[in-house]
Amino acid sequence: MQPDNFTIVILAAGNSSRLGKPKQLLTYNNTILIGHEVQTAADSGCNEVVVVTGANHDQVATAISSEDVVVVENRNWQTGMASSVKAGVEFAMEGQSKGVLIMLCDQPLITSDHLKKLASTFTTNPDKIVATQYESVKGVPALFPERYFDKLTTLRGDQGARQLIADNGEDVIAIAFEGAALDIDTESDYRQLINLTSS
After folding, report:
1. Dihedral of the CA atoms 51, 53, 56, 61 (nearest 10)?
2. Where is the MobA-like NTP transferase domain (predicted)?
3. pTM, 2 dp
4. Is residue 177 a contact partner of residue 110, using CB atoms and an 8 Å limit?
5. Which of 7, 24, 47, 50 has an alpha carbon within 20 to 30 A of 91's alpha carbon?
């Protein structure tokens, strides 16, 4: 299997309730958060990039309309993250993808080099889940093989990919990347990001 034979699914459907405004549109790195994540994904050498929108579909879709991405609207976003995972994976299943790499829209320190490491490891271990390890967590970004697609589409509520990783530990290869620990949920998180990247 070639390392580019996978789809990246960026989950960007939430309503950013703790932040009070769409986190996807926060200014970052001469673009916006979702634009930065899309570029990071595109630079990884993947087959295609899918952005799953929801709460602020029109704004987010318009903001990335010039990018080479597929936008999938999750009209059931209020039921929890699982519905966004399902929407993205079902789209990938329609194509020839042998794997799905799930990312969040609010982990801005993730690099394309880290995604390439996940992909390279997946290429030589095509039946394994290749996850990101930070602190004591094994989570996303994570690359799931085709044999896990059905399980990904049957998650429920706020169950995300991390739950599937935890439930299948014997099938997981973890790649350390401490930058994954920073996600943007609050104004304080955003200030921390700006301080980190401007120093």
Report:
1. 40
2. 9-168
3. 0.96
4. yes
5. 24
pLDDT tens-digit profile of 55-92?
999 999 999 999 999 999 999 999 999 999 999 999 99
Contact 159, 83 (CB under 8 A): no
For the chain, which domains are there?
7-194 (3.90.550.10)
Q: How far apart are the first and last CA of the chain?
A: 41
Phi/psi of residue 111, nearest 5 degrees: -115, 160
Which structure tokens are listed for 133?
């390890």
CA distance 157 to 70: 24
> Across-strand partners of 190?
none
Of 182, 70, 68, 46, the C-alpha closest to 122 is 46
Burial (CB count <10 Å: 0-12, 13-18, 19+), residue 33: buried
